[in-house]
Design goal:
Elements lengths: L2 H34 L4 H5 L13 H8 L3 H31 L5 H10 L5 H14 L6 H5 L6 H11 L4 H9 L4 H12 L1 H16 L3 H6 L8 H11 L4 H31 L5
């Protein structure tokens, strides 16, 4: 082994060790949160603190659903997430239209869509709220879901990816008698798996963590999402740290699980084009 190769190997080992240490440091708060959710409040407050629970228990999670209305908040959050995924496919359809169809005003319309990305969401909240109020959709699940159903970023992401799909492939499918819906659902969508994964995890995180808009739109607790419920939990049980840790764990762990399952496609989304 030459001196240069040994130097490269040592550099890779050093980088690997540094990344491993960084990953461990990054994971410590999450591990501490998950372990604390299995402890009693007395254990969390004990000094010196103990990393592992003396006797792991799911009592805190059971209390979330028995003493607190987390089941309702979970149902509402899952509804928001479900419709967010439906909105993701609307974004994909719009992105496909901008990428592969030619129509009058296409470019100005697309730039207009992009321009909306420059407007902070907080600026449009009051106008959107007034529109929802005029439509009598305040304090309803429809009012919570509809404004976030389609987004400029999702349209832009799908449009950029689908622009790289071969036009010859789509024309060949049309010559074989395939309908536009068949081309979109059976050809374009399977090719777009990497970008679907990237947008999918972003959509899930956005829907799962939805807080400000549900808080503004909903006056009744039966329409609150998990994030709003967690904020109420911190207010009503400010001194019960074990219960707060359980609520935070319930919010964070599903996102980590989704990311673990989709990380392969997420990485592909940054490295693979649509030319297949």
């Amino acid at each position: 082994m030459t001196k240069e190769l040994r130097g490269n190997r040592r550099a890779k080992i050093a980088i690997g060790i540094a990344l491993a240490i960084g990953a461990i440091v990054w994971m410590i708060p999450f591990i501490w949160m998950i372990l604390s959710s299995l402890k009693t409040d007395a254990e969390i407050m004990a000094f010196p603190p103990k990393f592992l629970p003396a006797e792991a228990s799911l009592a805190n999670f059971k209390e979330l659903f028995s003493a607190f209305d987390f089941a309702t908040y979970l149902r509402n959050t899952l509804i928001v997430v479900l419709f967010s995924f439906m909105g993701m496919f609307l974004n994909a359809m719009a992105g496909f239209g901008f990428a592969k169809y030619r129509f009058k005003g296409q470019e100005p319309l697309f730039y207009l869509v992009l321009a909306t990305m420059m407007i902070p969401g907080q600026v449009t909240m009051i106008p959107v709220y007034l529109i929802m109020n005029t439509m009598h959709l305040t304090n309803t699940m429809a009012g919570i879901i509809l404004p976030g159903l389609v987004g400029a970023y999702g349209i832009f992401l799908f449009r950029q990816f689908m622009s790289t799909i071969s036009n010859e492939l789509l024309e060949a499918a049309r010559l074989d008698g395939a309908s536009e819906w068949y081309i979109f659902s059976k050809i374009v969508i399977p090719i777009s798996k990497p970008v679907l994964a990237v947008q999918g995890i972003a959509t899930f995180i956005g829907g799962w963590n939805s807080f400000l808009w549900p808080l503004i739109m909903a006056n009744d607790e039966k329409y609150y999402t998990l994030s709003v419920g967690l904020q109420l939990l911190k207010g009503q049980y400010a001194n019960n740290y074990a219960l707060q840790m359980a609520g935070s764990t319930f919010m964070v762990v599903p996102i980590l699980i989704i990311f673990m399952f989709l990380q392969k496609y997420i990485l592909e989304g940054y490295n693979v084009s649509g030319n297949k």
